[in-house]
């Protein structure tokens, strides 16, 4: 087996490791094999998480710094950078909601500002620690980022605002990630956008088959 053949096999292996979990999530959200069940959704998420951890273990876990969890002294700086990077997007959402007379803020947004970053932490780890490195190894730095953004956005179809917003969010947060690897910062910024979308602008957060219900 030649060196070029080995490189090609390795490149496609990384691509499949990235694409297959995305396909599984898309199939789950669209087909809903067991109907609407939050418990089964959590079981599926845990099962998929175990598979991804196994793949990462086989390839060699990233170091704490590579995974964005060890830079304790830089988290606050990274959080400030990430929040500032999504601020224009938040302002656009608020202005649009105000003009459309759908802007409404109550105490629920405070709870969302605490809870949403926790869920966003898992998503950002999946995108930037698992998905992005494999797609970069398969198709290069720039195309890997583009594919990551497109795939993450596709998981939010057919919700138009979440789809476009998710693609933009990956590009925006990648700027912060490549300067200060901090998952905490990405989660805070992502959670802030999500809280504003759901609790202030009142955008539907449904995706897949549930968008039509």
Kindly describe this structure.
This protein has 213 residues and is an all-alpha fold. It has one domain. 74% of the residues lie in helices and 0% in strands. It contains seven helices and no strands. It is globular and about 65 Å long. The relative contact order is 0.17. The mean pLDDT is 87.
Largest sheet: none
List the uncertain runs. none
What general form does the structure show? globular
Mean pLDDT: 87
The quaternary structure here is: single chain
Terminal residue distance: 52 Å
Strand content: under 5%
In DSSP terms (H or I, runs of 4 or more residues), the helix count works out at: 7
Tally of distinct domains: 1
Return Rg in Å: 18 Å
What is the chain-wise order of helices and strands?
Answer: HHHHHHH
Q: How many strand elements?
A: 0
């Amino acid at each position: 087996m030649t060196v070029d053949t080995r490189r090609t096999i390795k490149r496609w292996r990384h691509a499949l490791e990235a694409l297959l979990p995305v396909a599984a999530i898309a199939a789950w959200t669209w087909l809903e094999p067991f109907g609407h069940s939050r418990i089964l959704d959590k079981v599926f998420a845990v099962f998929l998480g175990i598979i991804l951890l196994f793949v990462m273990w086989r390839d060699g876990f990233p170091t704490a710094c590579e995974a964005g969890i060890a830079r304790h002294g830089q988290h606050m700086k990274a959080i400030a950078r990430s929040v500032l990077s999504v601020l224009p997007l938040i302002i656009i959402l608020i202005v649009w909601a105000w003009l459309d007379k759908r802007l409404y803020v109550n105490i629920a947004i405070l709870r969302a500002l605490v809870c949403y970053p926790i869920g966003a932490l898992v998503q950002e780890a999946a995108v930037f620690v698992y998905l992005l490195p494999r797609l970069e190894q398969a198709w290069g730095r720039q195309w890997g980022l583009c594919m990551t953004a497109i795939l993450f956005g596709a998981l939010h179809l057919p919700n138009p605002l979440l789809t476009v917003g998710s693609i933009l969010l990956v590009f925006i947060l990648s700027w912060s990630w490549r300067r200060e690897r901090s998952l905490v910062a990405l989660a805070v910024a992502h959670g802030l956008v999500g809280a504003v979308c759901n609790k202030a602008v009142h955008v539907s957060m449904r995706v897949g088959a549930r968008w039509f219900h």
